[in-house]
Fold each of these.
Amino acid sequence: VIFSYLEDDVKTALTEYREDLEDTGSFVDIAKMARNEQLAFWINLHNVAVIEQIALAYPVSQPSRIKMDNSSQPLDETPFITVAGVNMSPKDIRTKIVFPNWKDPKVIYGFFRGEIGGPSIMGDAFNGGNVSELLEDSAVEFINSLRGTQKNGSRLDVSEIYQEARPFYFQHWGPDLKTHLLSYSNTQVT
C-alpha cells in the first residue's frame, strides 16, 4: 500500500468498509458461519482497520508509532474496532479470537501489521473460498523473504511476529518453529 497516494475519498472508503464489517459482525452471528468464512471475516476486518488507521495517520507510517485517541496506546493495542458491542484492538482479533480458535499456524500470515518484519497485504480480499490458498501463498512468500527469516552465519533470525504466536503454535519454541518454517521454506532458508 502506497499510503502517500491515498486521497481523502479512499480513506473514507476504508473507514466505510471497516464500519460495514463491524456492522455485519453485529447483526450476523459470526460463530454460525462456516469456519473459512469466519476466518476471512476476522482477517479482513483486522487488515482494513490497520490500513485505515495508517492512512489516516500518514505520514507516520509505522503502526507502532501511531498513538490512538491522543493516548499512549499504540494502534495495535487500542480497542477502536467494535463488533456486536465488544470493543477490540487488532491484537485482540489475533490473540483472543483467531489464534486460540484456529490450530493451523499459517493463519498468522493473513494479518497485515504495516511494520517491516510482518506479512504483506494480499492483493485479494479473503473469502471462504480462497482463505486457505491465500494464507498458504502468504506463508511461502513471508518465510522465504528477509522480512520473515534471515540466515546469520549458522543462526536463523526470524521475525518478531513468531513471538506473539508462540503460545498458540510454538510451545516447544525451537523445534516447533523449525518444523513450521521448513514446511514452507525453500532451500535458501533451510
Amino acid sequence: MTIDVRPCSSREELKQALAPIWHFFGGTPTDERMERFAAVLPPERMLAAWVDGTVAGGAGAFPFELTVPGGRVRAAGITVVGVFPTHRRRGVLRAMMRSQLDQAHENGEPVAYLWASEETIYGRFGYGLASLAGAFDLRRDRAAFAQAYERRGRLRLIEAGEALEVIAPVYDAVAAETPGMFGRTREWWESRVLPDPEFRRGGGGELQRVVVEIDGRAQAYALYRLHISFEAGIPTGSTNVIEAMGVTPEATREIWRYLFDIDWMNSIKAGLLPVDHPLFFLLAEPRRMGFRVTDALWVRLVDVEAALAARSYGEGQSLVIEVADGFCPWNEGRYRVPGGERTEADPDLRADVTTLGSVYLGGFTFAELARALRVEELSPGGIARADALFHADRAPWCPEIF
C-alpha cells in the first residue's frame, strides 16, 4: 500500500481531508462548517493522506502565535487529525505526522502543540504532556466567597455585533501573559468563538456575553449559556460557563461573582480551567467544586534551538541538556540554557524531546519527570538548576480546544 501525503490544493480537497475526523463525529462536513474551517485553516495547512486515489486520513495545523514564558513563538496548532477505520494500523497516521512536522520545520514554526483525543498516540511522535485543565460543577448555594468585598465596576450584557470589539482586548491582555494561549485573529473570533449555531447549544439557550467595566473600560468578560429546567417548581438548571477571564484579579473576581449569582439556576458548570485558578482561594468552600483534572495541552519542540531561544528563563547557573529525538533527528544534540544554543560541552541532564515539551511552558518540572524516570541527571544539582531556569509564574492554560 502506497501512502501519498500532500497539502490540500483546493476547498474540495480540504473537505475530503476533513471527512475522516468527521466520520467519528457521525457525519460529514456541512457547508456551514466548511466555511468556518476555511476562514482559519487555508487548504495548504491541511494534509491529506491518499491511498489508491482516495483520502484515507487528514491532519491540519493552524498557524498560531503561542504565548510562552516571557514571549511568543510561531507554532503549529495541530487539529482535525483522523484516519478512516478502514485504514487503521497501516502507517497512515505516522506518514501524516512525518509530513506535518517536516512542514512545520520548513515553515519556521519551532513548536507544535495540540489537544490529544487519545493520549497514547502523540508521545510516539515527540509530544509531551505540557498542561492540565480542570472542570467543576458547583451548586449555587455553595458558591459564597471566603471574604466580603465591595463590588466594583459595571456589568453589561452585550450584543453579538459589539462583542468582538469589546472582549477581544481583554482576551489579548490575558493571552499575552499566559503560556499556552494563542493570539486570536478577527477571523478566529468570527468563525470559532462567537458563532452560536444550534448544534453548539446542547439543549441550552443562546450564547450570552457579559463584560465587567471598571473605570470605563472592559476588564473582564464571560461567554455562557443558560440551561433552564424545573422540577416540582424548583429550579434545577445550570449556568454553563464557556469562557471567563479578567485582566486583573479584581476583574476576575467580579466576573465570577456575577456568574455564581444568576437567578433561577441551581448550579454553575465550567471546564477547560487552569489548575491554578483563583477560585480555589476566592470560594469559601472550594472543595464543593469537585474540581476534576485531566490532561490538556501536549507540546512538541520542532526546532529545539529556536524554541529554547524564544522563551525567557529564571535566574540561575546555566546548564547543558542532551536531547534525544528519534522522530526529528535534526534536534539531536546538546543545548545550553538559558539561550538554547548548541554546544559540545558535557551535559548536565539527558532527556528525550518529550521531556522538553512537558517543561517548556512551565506546566511541569524536571523534578517531577525525574521521579517518573523521564530525565537523567548527569551532574549533581542539575535538575534543581534546570527547574530554577524553567520556572514560570503561572500554570499554562488554553481556554478552548482547537
Amino acid sequence: MHFRSLLALALVVPLRPATAAEQVVVPPKARYWMSATTANGMSMGGGMSQADMMKMAIGGGGASKLLDLDLGSTLAPTGGGPKADALIPPGMNMGASLPLTTPVAKPAQRASEREDDDFERPKGKLLLFWGCSEKARPGQPVVIDFAAMAAGQVPPNLFAGERIRTARPPSSSNSKTFGEWPYGDKNPRSIPANASLIGNQRVEGNYSPPISFELTQDWLAPLTLSGRGNGASGQTLAWNAVPAATGYAATMMGGGKSSSGEDSTTVVFWSSSDVQTFISGLTDYLAPAEVQRLIGKKMLMPPSQTACAIPVEALAAVDGGMVSMVAHGPEVNHVSPPRPTDPKVPWVQDWVSRTRYRSTAGAVLADGELMTSMGGMGGSRAGSDAADAAAGSAASNANCPPPADTSAAAAVGGAIAGSLGSAMGSMFGGKKKKADPNCPQ
C-alpha cells in the first residue's frame, strides 16, 4: 500500500494502545434499598399517619423517623406467591421483621368512570424567585402564564438550570418481582422515637437471594428550622448544622396575593439555588457525589452554611405557603459477592443494597412570618385533641375530609392548605371533585 494511503488510514482510524481485558460484570439478581428520613417541624413526609402529621404540625410530637424499604428482583417467586421479610435488628424496637408486600395491580379505570367533563382550564401565573439574598436579583421574578402553558406554550426557561441526577429505587415497573414496606398510603406504620438502624439488616424471601449487611449509620439528627425577620424587613432562614450532612436545600411555595375580584391564581415559588430552578430534585434523596457536583454548580448549599435569606419581593408576593428544607446525608452501599481482583474473572453479582439518609424540616409562612408549629395557637392541648379527633375521623372513612375544626391552628392551616391547593390546581389544571354523599357535610 502506498505510504500516503497508510497515513490517511491512520488519521481516520487511530491506533488504540493495548489494554487489559475489561472485566465482565453481571448485574445483581436483587436490589434492596432502605430510605431513612428524619422529619421535623411541619415537614409532611411519606410514611406518616394523618395523626402523626397533624401532631407534628401542632408541635407536640417532635421529630419523626420515616423508613421506606424496597426490594426488586429479576427472579420469579418460587413455591407460590411472592413473599419476603426484612429481618431487623432488635434496636429498631419494631419486632423481629417487617413484611415486604407485593402490590396488587389495580384494574384500569374505564373512560365512563372518569370526570373529564369537569375539567377547568387553569388561570393565573407563576412568580419564580431563586437565590439566598435579601433583595431579588436582576431579572426576577420570572413570570409564567398558566393559560399559555395549558395551551402547550411551555417557556423554555421554566425548568432551567442543571439537571438533577436522582436514582430510581426498585419498583414494580423496573423489577420482575417487587416488595415494599410500608405498603400503601393508607397503611403507614409509626416508627418508635428510640428506633435505631444500627446492626445487622437481613432480607429473606422466595424471589431473591438471602441478603445480609451491617449498618453503622443511624437516622440523621433532626433539622431545626427557624426564621429571623418578617415580610416587610425580609426573612432569613436559619438552621442547625446536622452531623454527617453533605449539603442543604430550601424551597418556598405558596399562593400569591390577588386583587379583589380577580378570577385568577398566583403561585409564588422560591428556592435557595443560585441557579434558576423550579420544581426539581433538589430535595429528593441525592447521592453524596451528586450533592458535591450540585454544590459546585451552586444549586445546593454546602454543609458549612446555616442561613439563607428569602428575597423580600418573594415574601411580599406570597399570601401563605410552606417552607421546606432538606439536609442531604450519606449513602451506604453493599454488594455480594465482592468484586474479584482478577479482571479475567467475571463479577456475577447476587444482590446489592443501598441505604440513603436525609433530614427534613418544614414551616408555614403567613404574612411573612415563619411558624415551625401551631402549638401556641388556640392552646396546645386543644390543638392536640382536635388533631386526634380529625385523624380518628379520617381513619374511619379515608375518603372523607376531616371534620371542621374551629381552633386558631386549624384556621391558619386551612388557609395555607386552601391557598396552596388553589394555586396548584390552577397551575396544573384540575377537576371539581364531587362530594362523597357518605361523608358528613
Amino acid sequence: AGATFAGCAGTPAQRSGQAVALAPGVYMVPGTGGAADDQNLGRIGNAGFIVGGRGVIAVDTGTSYAHGQALLGAIRAVTDQPVRVALITHTRPEFLFGGAAFRERGIPIRMHSRTARLMASRCEACLKTLRQTLGEEPMRGTAMYKADELFEQSETLELIGRPVRVLYFGHSSGPGDIAVFDPVGGVLFGGGLLDARRIPDIQDSDLAGWKKALGELASLGAKTVVPGHGPAVSASAAIGGVERYLAQLDSRVRHLVAAGTSLLDVPEAG
C-alpha cells in the first residue's frame, strides 16, 4: 500500500489507529498517549508490525478485543500477507488485552515466560479496572488468555522472509520486557524499555538491569525507535531520554537517603 514514511520527530500523519510507515515494510500504529479514559478507549500505547515476503509479525495487540480487531484492520489495509505471530513486549493492559482478536484468527501470541507469569498474577485486576474506567461496551469480548508460545532468551525469528530480532536483557524495565528490532529497516520497537515524552514506568523495574539494557540497545545502530508511548523518535533521543531520567532518579534517591530521609518517605519526597 502507498503509505508514506513518517519523520522521526513525529508528524500529523501519526494519528491514533492509522498505520504509519517508518521504513520499508515496518509500520507503527500510534496510540493516543495520556491516561486511559472513555474518550481514548484506553488505546494509549503504540503497536506496530513488520511485513516480509512470507508474512507479518505484529508487535503488541492493543487494549481490548475491539482494539485488536482495529490493529488487524490496519495491517490488512497495508498487506494481504498473513500475520504469523503477535509479540507482547511487556505487561501493561494497553499492549496485551487485544490478544483475543488475534487468537481467534489462529495467530499465536508469543511472550517471555516472565511476562506470562506476571500477566497471570496481575491482569485479572487490570481488566476489571479497565472495564470500570472505559465502560462495558468498549471492552466487550476482552478476556484474559494464556500465551500460545513462550521463550526464555533473545532470539531471531525467521518467519516472514526477513530477520526480526527479539531482544531480552534480563530483568530491566520489567521482569520479562523485550524489545523488537528489524535490522533491515533499522527500526526498534522499545516496548516498556523506552517511552518518549512520558515519565517511564518504574513499578516493576530493576534499575541496574534497565541501564545495562539501554547500553545494549544503543549498540544496535537503530535509526528509529517506536517507544511504548509517544511519537517515533531517533534512537539517540529515545535511549538518551530514558538514560537521563534513570540517572536523575538514582541521584535524587541517593541524595534523599544520604540526607536521612526514611525509605518509606522517599517516594513522596521525590
